[in-house]
Amino acid sequence: MGTAAAAVAVGALSGTRAHAAAPEAVDEIDPMIGAVTTGADTACGKTFPGPVTPFGMVQLGPDTVSGGDNGSGYSADMTTIEGFSFTHMGGVGCYGDLGNLQVMPQTGPLVTGRDAAKSPFAKSSEVARAGYYAVTLDRYRVRAELTAAARAGILRFTFQDAGTGRIKVDLSRRVGFDGTHSVAQHLKQVDAHTVEGWMRCDRLGGGWICGNGPYYTVHFSLQFQQPIRTLGVWEGDRVDNDVREWTTVATDSGFFVELPVRAGQQVLVKSGISFSSVDGARANREREISGWDFDGTARAARKKWADAIAKVSVTGGTADQRTIFATALYHTMIDPRVVSDVNSGDRYGRRTIFSGWDVFRSEFPLLSIIDDQVVSDQINTLMELTRTGAVRGLAKWELLGIDTNTMLGDPAVNVIAEAVTKGIKGFDAEAAYKMCRDVALGPAERSNRNDFANWHKLGYAVETSLSTTVENSYSDFALARMAEKLGHRDDAAKLRATAKNYRNVFNHDVGWFRGRNADGSWMDANSGCIESNPEQQGWFVPHDVPGLIELAGGRQKFIDRLNGIFERTPPEQMMKWNENYNHSNEPVHQMPFMFTYAGAPWLTQKWSRYVCDNAYRTGPNGLAGNDDCGQMSAWYVFAAAGFYPVSPVSGVYVLGSPIFSSTAFRTSRNRTFTIKREGDGIYVQSAQLNGRGLDRAWITHDEVMSGGTLTMRMGAEPNKAWGSDPKNAPPA
Question: What's the CA gap between 707 and 494, in Å, rounded?
């Protein structure tokens, strides 16, 4: 075996299973699913394939690009690598941010420029698994391996040739649109092995541009296994080989360490990071990766993932279906990531990256079942930002301590109200209610609700009229449920009334929803929506489907209209952005499960399975749209299991068509709820809940959390009698 082949083999085996037995669920995770940033009609996952632990701060991984609409900084269709950075954003639907502390091995002459120094690589040399990534850099003949703990990461570089090895650390690099960079950098060599410092980032340096951009500082404590013999810095074209402490405001800067290497020698580098202090970064490194056991760290990361995804276990299905499911579950456990240091003393785990408009629909409902501590942590984080004045109202799309004000609606209200109504503890419910009430009812100076004035004056929004009106209507319903739970009856009555404001943007002359101007006139069919059209957006009335059925002209007209959208979306369109059932984006995600409210649960079974089969695949192109911080993946977890929260705050799950023979949810109450599928086919013939016949095509959150078994007997033809009786319809 040659040196290059040996290096690849080492990477393939490190920190992993060493036997050929049937794969465990953790080994079915494929971090490459969705890992492209550009695709036909904008539908692409934008996930990143590097190592991370569940909800970890360090998300260490390969970088193929820094600028452009490539939020993860990595795309599987690109063929060169810039380096490996310690922070990433995965699945975001915008120009990204982070991508800080980029490490790159080199041989030969020093090349400081990020683009000039990048290396080609063969796709066949990449290995991506839960907690581990490896690739061979052809230009430098170096095998790079990466693994991570929650707040620290470690890299192992195997140099294939003898000579001078170099580790280059780019301190200015940052993901975002062209010209993105950190705005100030500092380093200090503190001993023969350790360099510490920070990179300051703000809006002047670019980064996130969808709304407000963040300002943050990444502190690091980086250590080399071998003693540092040469430490140099660069600033643009200027290089200084004799520096021990250095501060700059350059847009292109960093440092490098050189050392002699033997052929086949391994060079290890590790670092802790912190968004608070260098002391915090050092404590994170010392606590979480205390030694130089790369393989042990990789095994620990894999074990954390094995334990995490064991919260939802499946049997049956095809190998591809199990891979899609395991990876989807994995993607739901990346954000919101922890940002507290090991020595922070925080009473809860502070979180960041709350993609609210996306994740209130499926991601947080899933977490409310299997990991309500994350939900509680997120709510405490949102409340703290409001309490300290960092955010007015409640953050819609939080990133590193600020509200980017990206997208619309009041998703934090939705998440908080859902948590309260489902009995999740660990935060001050009354204080949270007051913050939510300020958003919905004012006064205006304490609210960040979209188009607050017109909402209260006209009963509908004018700015992005249709999208904002239906989103606000759901949030008012959610808050009404929370108000009832906490005994605020007068508020609940007001909010129940405004939750029906969606009716004010239903145009009876055209028989469907339209945006509306301030003078009461109707907008055209191409206006008034965000990332959707009126035909798609009008279905977002999850809290009052009976009211929507009435507006649509009754049950049959409702069914016909909804069914027509799916029939106009052939399989070849399901992986693309389209004008009909556009699974690539969130406004339609509840639609397959709405048939049940009109007495046609067999159509929910048909179309939910259709979406599972045609909008999710293996491989880098395996997601029909941006993963949106776990939302796209959480949808699959629910639908493949056979149930879905159309209106999360209502505590009701509509039953669909389970893919697997068995799907078991280990709940936050330490109970197990199992969905069993008996027989073949996609249509439910009958069902039992805990051994008793179930005539309704829905279950409650309390039934799930109490544990038990739901058995669904399937067949090839629909049983139109089961679950269709109006008296068995899901509660409004």
Answer: 36
